[in-house]
Fold:
Amino acid sequence: MCPTPLSHSTLLQPRADALPPVPWRDPHGVSPADLAAYIQQLEDACLANPQSANLRTCLGMAHAVNYDVYKSMDALEDARAVDPENFWAQLKYAELHYRLRALNRAEEETRRAADLATNAFQLAIARKQMLEIRTLKHGCARNVHWTKPLTVPALVFSAMIAVMFATMMWK
Structure:
């Protein structure tokens, strides 16, 4: 799918309750030049409208499509700071943690987004994301909390290596 060309007719001024339009349907099919131009437009719009959490949310999403995690995280955190009650900013912040596989944090942030949902559609999206996070957590070993010290296992492993080395040198 071809992205819609960016033009001056596509203004990035959202309604009070809506996100600005995205100039493509498939984020994986957008050219890097179009994405860079869209990010620049969003950054300019954020400077012109610093109290718009929706613009900052879209900027965070655009940075995520561009695989720029740190800028995406910064933009989404700014969106949440501008409007702590913004459902979309909270949900996309949680989704970024989910995509980074920080599942415990993603679950916590998605729960906050579900609390901010103002209609059934938003609640359904938050619940679906929560289900995906919990499904991934259930079958994942990455969320092990390392609360026990590893000193003893490291010493035993080192001793085993030393014994193997001594045995090999003996022969």
Observations:
- The radius of gyration is 23 Å.
- The chain has a mean pLDDT of 85.
- The CA atoms of residues 94 and 106 lie 5 Å apart.
